């Protein structure tokens, strides 16, 4: 734990996503993985330790988060892992020139509803370029009032819920936090919708 601000803290969602990555470690060697909004980069670091070819990214306007990504790489003996500044919703040269990906990781990126469309715009762009890729994402349930279903439909994406018990992440010590309040974590996989609209 480096700092209690956004990308400088290991949030419970990151621990749960890292558990999912670990549960799928045998399929990861050689897979091309991009972590968006990486911050401390726990899921991406675990993927790299499992043999995936990982690129970490966070907002180009967030130098402390990019520093945090690089620091995590150094501390975990992964000093050559690429770290890119990618801002959600922006078609930057870094995004346009990004090598193909198989898996996109994002823990707790669905935090502020004002960012949801920008996130899904970026995910749509990446999945259009990589139609067989999937976006593995975990998020903390903070409000019953928000949903991304309408945005998924708009961007021709589909989601499937992944029960935490299916990969051993339903244990209190994994999805808990010392922060005050309730910490319910959910996981879903987002992929391009089928041509029949499902």
From TrEMBL:
UniProt-recorded Gene Ontology molecular function terms: methyltransferase activity
InterPro entries: Methyltransf_16, SAM-dependent_MTases_sf
The organism's taxonomic lineage, starting at the top: Eukaryota, Metazoa, Chordata, Craniata, Vertebrata
UniProt GO BP: methylation
Gene3D superfamilies: Vaccinia Virus protein VP39 (3.40.50.150)
Gene: Mettl23
Pfam families: Methyltransf_16 (PF10294)
Protein name, UniProt field: MET23 protein
UniProt keyword Transferase, yes or no: yes
Keywords in alphabetical order: Methyltransferase, S-adenosyl-L-methionine, Transferase
Listed GO CC annotations: cytoplasm; nucleus
Family listed: Belongs to the methyltransferase superfamily. METTL23 family.
């Amino acid at each position: 734990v480096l700092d209690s601000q956004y990308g400088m803290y290991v949030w419970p969602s990151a621990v749960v996503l890292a558990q999912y990555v670990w549960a799928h470690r045998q399929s990861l060697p050689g897979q091309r993985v991009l972590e968006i909004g990486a911050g401390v980069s726990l899921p991406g670091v675990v993927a790299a330790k499992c043999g995936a070819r990982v690129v970490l990214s966070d907002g180009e306007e967030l130098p402390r988060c990019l520093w945090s990504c690089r620091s995590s790489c150094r501390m975990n003996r992964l000093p050559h892992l690429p770290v890119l500044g990618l801002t959600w919703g922006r078609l930057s040269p870094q995004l346009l020139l990004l090598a193909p990906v198989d898996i996109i990781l994002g823990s707790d990126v669905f935090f502020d509803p004002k960012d949801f469309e920008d996130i899904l715009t970026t995910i749509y762009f990446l999945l259009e370029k990589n139609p067989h890729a999937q976006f593995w994402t975990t998020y903390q349930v903070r409000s019953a009032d928000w949903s991304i279903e309408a945005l998924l439909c708009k961007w021709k994406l589909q989601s499937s819920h992944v029960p935490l018990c299916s990969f051993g992440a339903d244990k209190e010590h994994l999805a808990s936090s010392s922060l005050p309040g309730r910490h319910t974590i959910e996981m879903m996989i987002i992929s391009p919708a089928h041509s029949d609209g499902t």
